[in-house]
Design brief:
Elements: H1 3-34, H2 37-41, H3 58-68, E1 76-82, E2 85-92, E3 95-99, H4 111-121, E4 130-137, E5 152-159, E6 166-170, E7 176-180, H5 182-195, H6 207-243
Antiparallel strand pairs: 1-2, 2-3, 4-5, 5-6, 6-7
Helix pairs in contact: 1-5, 1-6
C-alpha cells in the first residue's frame, strides 16, 4: 500500500474516535453556556444555604464534650445548623460528632423534624409537594452521576418544582450536606464526559484523557501528512502540464 492510502486510512479511523469525544465536548460546552449556573445548577433560586457562625462560647461547649468523653481529641470544629438548632460538628480520628449548647451529643432527627427543617431551607412556593425519605445510599442518576458522592445514610427531601430540587441531610444530625436538582445532574453528566472521568468526576489527568489527547495529536499529524501529499500531487500535476 502506498503512503497516501495508508495515512488516509489511519486518519479516517482516528477521526471517528476523536469525533465522538469532540461531540461530547461541544455538547457539554453548550450545556455549560446555556444552563443558568447559580440560579438553577447551584439552586440559589430555590434553596437558602444555611450560614451558621461559631458561637461565642464554642470553646466551652467543646470542653464540656471532652469532659464527658475522657481521652477524646478534637481535630476540627465547625458550626452547623440542624433540626435541633445550632450545633458544633466535631471531627476526630474516629469520625464526627454533633453537640448542642450543653455539650451533649445530638439525637438523630426523625422524619417529622426533617420535613419541617427542609421547608425552612426552601425558597419556592410553600405549597410545593415535598417527599422525605431516608436512604442507606443514594443510587446514581444518568448512569454515572452520584449526586451525594460517597455519603451514606442520608435523609432526602424532594420538592416537586420544575428543576426537581432535592436536599440531602446527614441522618445522624440533620445537617444539610448536598443541594441537588435535575439541572445539576445534567451539568454534572456533561462535566464528567468533558473530563472523561466517569467515577469521581474531578480528575483532569488520567490514562483515558491522555489517550484521547494522543489520538487527537495523531489525527492532526496524519492530516498534515495528507495535506503535504496532496500539495505534492498538485505540484506534480502542474509540472506535467508545463512540460507538455
Amino acid at each position: 500500500m502506498s503512503l497516501g492510502p495508508r495515512f488516509f486510512r489511519w486518519h479516517r479511523w482516528l477521526a471517528w474516535v476523536v469525533a465522538i469525544q469532540v461531540l461530547a465536548w461541544v455538547a457539554g460546552g453548550f450545556v455549560f453556556t446555556w444552563l443558568p449556573f447559580k440560579a438553577w445548577v447551584k439552586g440559589e433560586e430555590h434553596v437558602r444555604r444555611p450560614q451558621q457562625p461559631l458561637p461565642a462560647d464554642w470553646a466551652r461547649q467543646v470542653a464540656r464534650h471532652l469532659e464527658a468523653h475522657p481521652g477524646a481529641s478534637v481535630l476540627a470544629v465547625t458550626s452547623v445548623l440542624t433540626p435541633a438548632g445550632p450545633a458544633l460538628k466535631l471531627r476526630h480520628a474516629k469520625g464526627e460528632t454533633w453537640v448542642g449548647a450543653d455539650g451533649q451529643a445530638l439525637a438523630p432527627p426523625d422524619e417529622a423534624a426533617m420535613r419541617a427543617f427542609a421547608r425552612r431551607h426552601y425558597l419556592g412556593d410553600a405549597g410545593t409537594a415535598l417527599a422525605v425519605q431516608r436512604l442507606p445510599s443514594v443510587p446514581p442518576r444518568a448512569l454515572i452521576v452520584r449526586e451525594a458522592g460517597e455519603r451514606t445514610d442520608l435523609w432526602r427531601a424532594s420538592f416537586d418544582d420544575f428543576v426537581g430540587t432535592r436536599l440531602y441531610f446527614d441522618a445522624r444530625s440533620g445537617e444539610l450536606v448536598a443541594m441537588r436538582n435535575d439541572a445539576w445532574v445534567l451539568y454534572d453528566f456533561f462535566w464528567r464526559l468533558h473530563l472523561m472521568d466517569y467515577t469521581a468526576g474531578d480528575d483532569f489527568s488520567h490514562p483515558l484523557v491522555k489517550a484521547a489527547s494522543l489520538a487527537a495529536l495523531a489525527l492532526v499529524l496524519t492530516g498534515a501528512v495528507l495535506a503535504v501529499l496532496a500539495v505534492r500531487r498538485v505540484l506534480r500535476a502542474r509540472g506535467g502540464v508545463l512540460r507538455r
